[in-house]
Amino acid sequence: MCLYGKGVARGYAIGRAVVLGATALEVAHYRISPDAVVSEKARLTTALKAAQDEMRELATTLPDDAPRELAALLDVHSMLLADPLLANEALLLIEARHYNAEWALTAQGQILGEQFAAMEDEYLRERGSDVRQVIERVIDAMSGSKSSRSLDKIQKTDESLIVVAHDISPADMVRLRGASFAGFATDLGGPTSHTAIVARSMAVPAVVGLGHVRSLVSDGDVVVLDGASGTVIVNPPAFALQEYRQMQQDFIAYREELALLKNVESVTLDGIRIGMLANIELPEEAELAIENGADGIGLFRSEFLFIGQTDLPDEDQQYQAYSKVVKTMAGRPVTIRTLDIGADKTMDGELAVTMNPALGQRAIRYCLARPELFATQLRAILRASAHGKVKILIPMIAHMHEIQSTKLALASAMRDLDERGDEYDAAVELGAMVEVPATAIAIEPFAQLLDFLSIGTNDLIQYTLAIDRADSEVANLYDPLHPAVLRLIANTINAGERAGKPVSVCGEMAGDPKLTRLLLGLGLTEFSMHPQQLLDVKREIRRAHSNALRTQVATILNRGQPIDPDLLNAQN
Length: 572
Ligand code: PEP
Ligand code: MG
Description:
572 residues, eight-stranded mixed β-sheet, 23 helices, 16 strands, 47% helix, binds phosphoenolpyruvate, binds magnesium ion
């Protein structure tokens, strides 16, 4: 039997299935008598507190080698347990409608779950599963059962085990640690679900979103899991098993080879040094960048500090987040992108009101229209620059006057700090993202005025080919290899070279090892990508001959022909 889901953590796992039971949210529904309201509310409050205590205990007993993400996810659950939107509303239902505690809690959970499900942002949408998992824990506490998930059956063993579950909560993950498990397969979840995040950080293969894997697989079944393609094979025939064992060995050898690359230089066969930078979304990810040998941070997407917040982070909170990254990077450059909000990324409660948000007031347009918000962020970034090398990156620049306005805003933020006596780096570098085709076409004045450029290929492709990057119906037309896209990238890199200004690529193209030779051939000398991709790309760089690739790519581009990256790979 073959099942197909989303592969979210690469690698092959082969082992016996351990199927986890689900805590049913089908709880008893009954109305309590008016004189039982007080005791029923107390029952819920006690259970909420017990679940909170349990979460706190798990957080404090986390071993040092537990993935960082786990602690953060436990925090999210603690916060949800304390959130009045959950607790107070459920208590109100007991009081006003005389629901029993379980009913009140699941009813309110459903309302919150629906609100999350309606959110546009994929990450936030998946947070609905946190609400469900938190409620499961409270219901467990009310029923007095602590191990309804039958995690206890996973003991330390030498055998490879594959955890098969409806969903896996962060608290489950903590309990699963210490047991030998080789992979995860779950009914629910997407690329940013807990299972995916934690599995990636532990380098354990995982497939999520399988739909019915828990009901189709039994304890003890032999399961093969391919964490790249998202395939799960149950009780495979011997020949398939053998083939997968070989693939597993090859993959392990490949990862071992990659790990050796961490401390070697990123240099092409013809001696060109290539900068390897990391893209991060949260301050904690800076450590991952260091672990993977990054030369610095090429893109800190600061909007992730703002997304989903009802109270915007103030200057001090932002300063803490930025300086944490700067300190972790210990002298390596940290490029902080100013708020890139709007279009597919909206703040809490802010509905996209424009007809076409991707062409509306987003990114730098949004910030220049809100001088106070922009000034707060600039001051916070400047203060962080007192602790190391900080560069400021402005998203979605299309006009020279946007640069002028940004420079004025920056000068004004510096004056504010001077008045306060706060320290900052007065020579902080200012760069822009090249994401709008107009900017890439008429790039010269930008290259002259700015200290550096960074090509955001995700948006550049979207705007060049008129393909909404979030619309799955046109995803097949989203083509990084379109000659027009490649010409815009080449034009930007060449202008940077002429002006003596560094140019990097920080869109997804930079992290795809299949495109590394093509980008080298376009003259790129700085790549910025998710930390987990750094070593794959470095491997390609060390095998490439940069100058030979440049000649080859220039010839093909001049003819306006499409480029087949596989051919480049074969030849140089
Ligand atoms: C890009 O557009 O390529 C980019 C790196 O920015 P984001 O994906 O955050 O829009
Ligand atoms: Mg972008």
